[in-house]
Amino acid sequence: MPAPSASTSPPHDGPTIPSTAESTRIRDAIFANQQLWLDRLATGLPYPRQSPGPSSPIAQERLWHSGPLEAARTGRSAVIMAAYVPAAPISARTLDQGFAWLRTRRTGDVLVWAAAPMPDLDILLLARGARESFVPHWMWRPLVPTVRVDIPAQVTIRLAAPADRDEILANPAIPYLDGAQLATMLALGATPAGNGPTIRVIIAREGGPLRRSRVVGLGALNVDASGPTITANLFNLGVDPAARGHGIGTALTQAALALAREDGAIGLGLNATPDGERIYRAAGFRSIGEGRTWFLPGARLRHPPDDATIAFAEALARGDDVALDSRLSDMPMMPNGESPVVFAARFGANGRAAETVRWLLRHGAMPDIVALWTVGLRDEATALMTDPRLRDRRAGPNATTPLHDAIERDDLALAHALIAAGANRTIRDIQYQGTAADWARVLHRQAIAALLVAADTDGRMS
User: DSSP assignment of 60-112, as one string?
Assistant: First the structure.
């Protein structure tokens, strides 16, 4: 089952830094530091954009930049970073230029990062075949005069050197390990740039008198000393699952804070996973906001949709009926893998989604229960529930049923309507192989779980 997403999970616990010009500045600093991190991993250079001359050959080969958009090739895959600049929105032309550059480099999959929600970029990417991915959670802690490091018993924390590479890789259970990336990180840490440190790799070793110590955890501190203020981000913090629960993750975080302060940074930023958020909050980090990511498969990058399909997708997303081409209304799948009706419904905020969905249905598009429900066409959606071909149909990237989708959205009314209509609760999705009850349990949908239990108790098993 999927982890709860930003749209379905409870708000982050604990204080959040107010949404002010100051918090925006901090968020942008965290994002810029992450951009430098990816540039460093792509090129092996401490400050790729400050190389002698216009740019070094390796930077020219692996980095591309236009306005607020930057692409970096990291091995076979690539990353695109989209800075949030209200006065300079990213155009379709700029995005297409970036994709074209990546194609000339024979790039595989692409992950696109945005510092904050960017609805216009969302439309451009989904129309070109990208899919929504995870939601980054930016967190920040100012560096106070002193940082205490509590190291658990039989654990040592220290900076890693290139000679430690093989021993670190000997424990593949440590998350985020990649041999080539680790070599680049260690090399940059061993040769700081002239204006200060770059990447510091911190490792945790666990052992005792009766056994040889081994590396069980790692974190990387990325320091940017190129601007008027020094910034630092924490990346790739991970602990061997067998060694968790002993305070090692907390000790690595505290060590990173101490090192960042030693390097003169004004604070430490990071992108927290749901598992890591608890540790970071306990260490004094606070929420700054959320970004967005999208995933573009390498096959779609190499074979992009034609111009007519992209224009049709963008018109659906914006509710622009005048630009819609009726010849494309019954296409089975949009570039991002959704049906036209589902694709149009996801853009309900444009205020035109219901009319766009009606237009599609009039022109022969396949109906979808959840999409109609989402845009407010609930009577029409309820009528469709009498047809088991639509009520129990698995569709979308993860081949989920409408009941799975209702559970993920935590839509109690929709789940109730589907169960009452006789939805098959034993069907499993393709990716996670979970039934409706499995999804309700993993996603903590207690109210919907109670509905499912009541339906089973009443003997209405489908």
Answer: HHHEEEETTEEEEEETTEEEEEE---TTSPPPHHHHHHHHHHHHHTT---EEE
